[in-house]
Design brief:
single chain; alpha/beta; 6-stranded parallel sheet
Length: 243
């Protein structure tokens, strides 16, 4: 049984789980299972999919869930509408917790694109620092005139571009570390999703300091009618009202 179901393995999800467990709230965190050795939150954890909207609604019903916080990654586009619909099916309050986007500032040289495919089309024969995650690497498989430093947590399982080096690493990253990495590999352009947060933002500061362009993939649009907050504190206040 669980009062609160937290969806996602993000830093925000882990911080929320810790806060709630420390306050004596029964919590279960659900992780998709896409990372081989994820950082686990405190409290009860389940790993793997639910089987869509019906499976998620059944889990809520069987476990007495009283509130759902969807703290999945900003680019995990499919789970949010399913979670919202399943919660509505069961009459369970649903909240979307998603960190703020990165915002272009003075000294940044950004090109914003709507999709990962558009990012692949924009790299144009340069030395690329690719930081979009292993599931998107195949979008660059046909880019033969560029060299890629591909940073991932787990090894990519899909087709890779012809000229590349894979760097397995997990944040958080520092400005000095990112500057050294980009200089050593003679990076000419950085490619990233607009994930937000501080865990990996040092690459943007390093690109700014080096005067490098950054190709930024915009977040997918999310459905209207979903209540959203951007901080763990706001989510805690919302949950206090629900419970």
């Amino acid at each position: 049984m669980a009062d609160v179901l937290i969806l996602g393995g993000t830093g925000e999800a882990r911080a929320l789980a810790k806060t709630l467990v420390d306050d004596g709230v029964d919590v279960v965190s659900s992780l998709a299972g896409r990372v081989a050795s994820p950082r686990l939150p405190v409290g009860a954890v389940r790993i793997g999919g639910f089987g869509g909207r019906r499976g998620l609604a059944e889990f809520m019903r069987d476990n007495g869930v009283r509130a759902v916080v969807d703290a999945t990654h900003p680019f995990a586009a499919r789970i949010t509408p399913n979670a919202h619909a399943a919660a509505a099916d069961e009459g369970v309050p649903h909240l979307r917790l998603t960190r703020p986007e990165w915002v272009e500032g003075p000294g940044d040289v950004w090109t914003r694109v709507p999709t990962i495919g558009a990012a692949a089309a924009a790299v144009g024969g340069r030395r690329v620092f690719l930081t979009t995650g292993r599931q998107d690497v195949s979008a660059f498989a046909d880019v033969a005139d560029s060299w890629f430093l591909i940073r991932v947590v787990d090894p990519p399982e899909r087709t890779l571009p012809p000229h590349h080096e894979v760097l397995r690493s997990r944040g958080p990253y520092t400005l000095d570390g990112e500057l050294d990495l980009m200089r050593r590999h003679r990076i000419e352009v950085v490619v990233t999703k607009n994930s937000g947060g501080s865990l990996t933002s040092a690459k943007l500061a390093a690109a700014r300091e080096l005067g490098l362009p950054v190709i930024v993939v915009d977040r997918p649009a999310e459905s209207d009618g979903i209540q959203r907050v951007s901080t763990v504190d706001e989510a805690v206040v919302w949950l206090q009202a629900q419970l």
